[in-house]
């Protein structure tokens, strides 16, 4: 996107977000899931970071909460109200940490991590230890006076243990058990159900009749202490303890983290444990622990620089529909599949979503280049929920079902009474399946874990129909498939990634040219350096290649679809390996002497050896170990659940080796 397009995009994003927020905060009605809205806000934030000159005072990124409701008395806040920026993955939180360290003069930063309760923010004022007023956040400066309703909440103390003048902040929430009971009752009475507990809590707190608020049995955690400024505790951790001593209900799960790695551990840990609590948690809040550093870091327009919300990725996200590919299945059935700008949903990257058939495309009304809301939930293949009309660009393109088969060029037909389209060539799908199985087999690309069975499955789901499709698959595209748990989808994607570097003979074999076996491929490979520059006229003169094979090669290269395939494979990142060594012969790093000055970096957890042991071994053999990837890195050792180093190494073309390969090297 160029600058002009970015400006236009920012304008549109602001409009959509504002509408969704107005609807949510003011009308108590949700028109978009939190996750989808978060996704849009995140995009806006990123674009504004790139072009700060486009940040305007009315941008949703600069606003907090919503407008106060008309029906309540207004309260002007004594203390400025902030909200946090969101991050969703490890590399983003590490960037945050680096920024913190840099701004306080390259010192180590420690943090306090707290669960982020999915409720409604409130501000309580106490005078001489007596509860005076309670307000919603409103627009950050003026909120609604909901004192009467807050007084119905048992966990909000009406009198503190010390006669202090203070302002505290916290989160009102409805327990899951109460929420479920309430919705059951509403269902019985034919009343509309609450979409989520936050809605229900917000609705209750905004009741003009405090009796109704009382019935909803709300609860409250307090986490921030902002007045008086004197005697403020010296760290966030101390502050939470102090709040507890004053008689507030503080969520017990807050945790001191010595460094950002501990924060990430806490975040991962609670992602697994969060459902066992009786309240909704949508992430953690990470705060620089030392007050001294907090003061040095200060605030931006709407957020403290020293704190951030580290959320768990939701089941939905927004992204761009880049193109629609018509995939041919084994039976010749043609399925439209949306190719998306890769997006993180629930912690893994998704790049495809099924569109099922032409009727579904019509129902969705979606066009190419639209911004779409994609959902990945449970065992269902990622699919498009809807597109966002306000974000449609002028050059959005209608999706057309092709007249001819994208694989074999035969006519596309629609059988009466069926919604699907088919290739009229009955052999098309099955033939393609055989080609693909050959392509990934041991003699060719040798992709571990990708046998004929999986090929069938991937074709049936519309994830692949051409060889080049294999290389753009992402982990999130596979996870919801039967037989693919988190680990096996990760393993397959890693194997595919690794196979991209291939020797020339194997590459030639993968093409499935008639009469070209291993020996012929080796002979051919010795004469050429670039697969697209085969010396066609001299083929017969190469010793060992007969006229039959020569003709077959010539024929293969005369077909447009084959040339297209070569181009697509090149685009997919296939590289011809220079060395002509068979993979099981010793590589240069295999011997101790070869490790001299070689730089190793580790990522993820290893199974049979600790990282420290691994590092020691490398050093003992004359190699070096670094903590981060740079272009000087020689090897990245890939363990389970790798971090951002993996992506970085891939981008820099660093050699990535498995734990097993690493063990072979240091043996
Ligand atoms: Zn066909």
Question: How would you summarize this macromolecular structure in one to three sentences?
Answer:
The chain has 22 helices and 24 strands. It starts with a helix and ends with a helix.
3D architecture notes:
This protein is an alpha+beta fold. It folds into 5 domains: 55 residues, Helix Hairpins, CATH 1.10.287; 238 residues, DNA ligase/mRNA capping enzyme (D-amino Acid Aminotransferase, Chain A, domain 1), CATH 3.30.470.30; 108 residues, Beta Barrel (OB fold (Dihydrolipoamide Acetyltransferase, E2P)), CATH 2.40.50.140; 75 residues, 5' to 3' exonuclease, C-terminal subdomain (DNA polymerase, domain 1, Orthogonal Bundle); 75 residues, Rossmann fold, CATH 3.40.50.10190. Helix content is 35%, strand content 20%. Strand 17 and strand 18 form a beta hairpin. Helix 1 runs antiparallel to helix 2, helix 12 packs across helix 13 and helix 16 crosses helix 17. It starts with a helix and ends with a helix. About 2% of the residues have low confidence. The structure holds zinc ion. Zinc ion binds next to loops.
Q: Just give the CATH class of the largest domain.
A: Alpha Beta
The CATH architecture of the largest domain would be 2-Layer Sandwich
* Gap from first CA to last CA: 49 Å
Radius of gyration: 30 Å
Secondary structure class reads alpha+beta
Mean pLDDT value = 86
**Separate helix tally:** 22
Q: How does the major sheet shape up?
A: 7 strands, antiparallel
Indicate how many domains the architecture comprises: 5
Residue share in helix: 25-40%
The name of the CATH topology of the largest domain is: D-amino Acid Aminotransferase, Chain A, domain 1
